[in-house]
Design goal:
- It is a single chain.
- Helices cover about 35% and strands about 20% of the residues.
- The chain has helices at about 1-5, 15-25; strands at about 25-30, 35-40.
- The chain has a two-stranded antiparallel ribbon with strand order 1-2.
- A hairpin with a 5-residue loop joins β1 (about 25-30) and β2.
Length: about 50
């Protein structure tokens, strides 16, 4: 699973980190009141029968 591989990585190169984050995050929404919603591009492993 992509998220498990990501959590075990030590990414020192900023460009590689940026690429990995772009693969994991679909979009980020910031409301006028300052709240932030992050929409991920993977399924929650807790909701997959774990």
């Amino acid at each position: 699973m992509e998220i498990e591989r990501f959590t075990q990585l030590e990414i020192l190169d900023e460009e590689i980190l940026r690429e990995v984050l772009h693969r994991l995050i679909d979009r980020v929404e910031v409301a006028e009141i300052g709240s932030i919603d992050i929409h991920y591009d993977f399924k929650n492993p807790c909701l997959m029968g774990a």
